[in-house]
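Tutorial, part two.
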Amino acid sequence: MSADYLAAQEKARQQYEAAFHLLKVTFPVVKDPKLLMGVLYNMFSSLEAGMDAILAYERELQLVSYGPSFQNKYTAFRYRSVPRNKIPVEIANLLGELKELLDLQQQSPMEFQRGNKLVICSSNYRIMKTISIKELDEYLQQTKRFLELTPEIIRFK
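Running the prediction step on this input gives:
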């Protein structure tokens, strides 16, 4: 097997473990909602690395071609790899949703804590997204499910 997709697969696993540790071990002790952005970033990185692993494998088999940007890779993954490999569409949607949240957070002039949630505001304050522990728990389960599918996809082509 190529080192590209094996390295991406390993990175996906490491990022997932970091997200899991932050959410399940560190956050309950510290109780700082700003840690939730770290969990979100690690989950996104894990999903992206898993997507990269599958795309690198399929590129080697000449099943897919894509450009270097995230949007090009996401489009190839969403519309080619997901149906071909019977990956749940929710996982592809989650990847896009996490990317939007991270982009909003980078452009956000303000984020604040409300209860056990982190609220991210857009520059004109019309869009306010909240991130809760319950949502991140669900995202973490979907990420784990995707990471369990990845080796099966790469192995059985």
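The chain has a mean pLDDT of 92. In part three we will examine how such features are distributed along the chain.
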